[in-house]
Amino acid sequence: MRELLTPVVVAPMAGGPSTPELVIAAGRAGALGFLAAGYKTPEAVEAELRSMSSPYGLNLFVPVPPLADPGAVERYREALLPEAERYEVDLPPVRLTDDDHFAAKVELAVTYRVPLVSFTFGVPSAEVVRALRAAGSAVLITVTSGDEARQALAAGPDGLIAQGGGAGGHSSTFTPAMYRGDRPALDVLAEVRAVTGVPVVAAGGDTPALLAAGAVAVQSGTAFLLADEAGTRPAQRAVMLSGAPRETVVTRAFTGQPARALRNRFVDTYSALAPVGYPAIHHLTAPIRAAAAARGDAEALNLWAGARHAAGRPGPVAAVIDALRA
């Protein structure tokens, strides 16, 4: 696996920012990019896999347990009705199950012998890990603590991703109700390395500092949101380029899973109301977010971004990678 990793890894950013063009450009610039399979149909994932040539990675979402309290999500749906009226959309019924086509996507990874497969939101079964490794894939599991690292190691991965609290987008925490996003990446990296000798990729902090602390690579997503090749929504690009950097906060308001985002009206209004409920809440808010994006209204969008987002600059992927290496 070490031969696949480069010091800078372009993180998978589901929902649009990660594109095949971004991953291909990263490879040409001497970095490793990840495709994001989350939310896509197997057919869409396969089309992206067919476009790959140089080494790359693929990220999969591990299915989460069934909702502990469907009633809490139903109450949140009621709270969102004013937003549905504001954006002239209908909210869907609460969707109790959704495995994001996990088995089909694993099978695609096996069929296409994806060089590196990473997992978010939990630990895949040892059987899945064995199947991937038998096909020639190296496997990484994302964790946010030493205890989660121990659980992940039981599945037999080739390495781990230690995700710090400053990382943008979804946290891969196994305990979303307790997650606060207040642990620096250096601390999480040290804790994970203390319980294992497998290679550890770090995420959510300064690249040179994390490499110096023993990470075999540093996974970065926020730095690439403004890259020419990224599929970041125009409304988010406009906010990030406005010259008035916003605070980032950890919120469950958009998906029911804690995620770090730029603060906006939706975050302020609904963060305190949103229960743990991924992916049910993701599906509830999807029509609102789509309508807001169509209007160019960033105040109801999930503006995923890390704590260091103000350092982001537009330009080609190669230039962003050079800046991170400096």
Automatic annotation (TrEMBL):
Q: Which cofactor does it need?
A: FMN
Q: Which BP terms in the Gene Ontology apply to this protein?
A: response to toxic substance
Task: Say yes or no: keyword Oxidoreductase present.
Answer: yes
What Pfam families does the record tag this protein with?
Answer: NMO (PF03060)
GO molecular function: any one? nitronate monooxygenase activity
Q: List UniProt keywords, sorted A-Z.
A: Detoxification, Flavoprotein, FMN, Monooxygenase, Oxidoreductase
Q: Which reaction does it catalyse?
A: 3 propionate 3-nitronate + 3 O2 + H2O = 3 3-oxopropanoate + 2 nitrate + nitrite + H2O2 + 3 H(+)
Q: Which InterPro entries match?
A: Aldolase_TIM, NMO
Q: Which family does it belong to?
A: Belongs to the nitronate monooxygenase family. NMO class I subfamily.
Q: Which PANTHER family match?
A: NITRONATE MONOOXYGENASE-RELATED (PTHR42747)
State the protein's name.
Answer: Propionate 3-nitronate monooxygenase
